[in-house]
Design a protein that fits this description.
The structure is a single chain. The chain is 6% helix and 24% strand. The strands form 2 sheets. A 3-stranded antiparallel sheet has the order 1-2-3, with no helix packed on it. Strands 4-5 form a two-stranded antiparallel sheet. It is mostly beta strands.
């Protein structure tokens, strides 16, 4: 199973996180982000025991959009991603 990297946070100081991936076999997204460990926020969510929550910056939503103008095998960068 090969994951396709859709994009990294263009403002990440280390350039490594958060990151959005697409699993084309399962037709699902995988999100690498910061663990949500704030009990007050977690209490407001209905998270089953087999799931967890991660946090990503709002600007990362651009990588979830369907990518018609970007080639299937290319990673989306800040310059070629759709404006949101």
């Amino acid at each position: 199973m090969a994951l396709r990297k859709l994009g990294k946070d263009p403002e990440s100081p280390s350039g490594g996180s958060p990151t959005i991936y697409l699993d084309e076999e399962k037709d699902t997204y995988l999100v690498q982000g910061w663990k949500v460990e704030d009990g007050e926020r977690l209490e407001q969510m209905d998270i089953p025991g087999h799931e967890s929550a991660v946090e990503i910056p709002r600007r990362m939503v651009q990588f979830f959009l369907e990518m018609n103008e970007v080639g299937k095998d290319s990673e989306v960068t800040k310059d070629d991603s759709p404006d949101v």
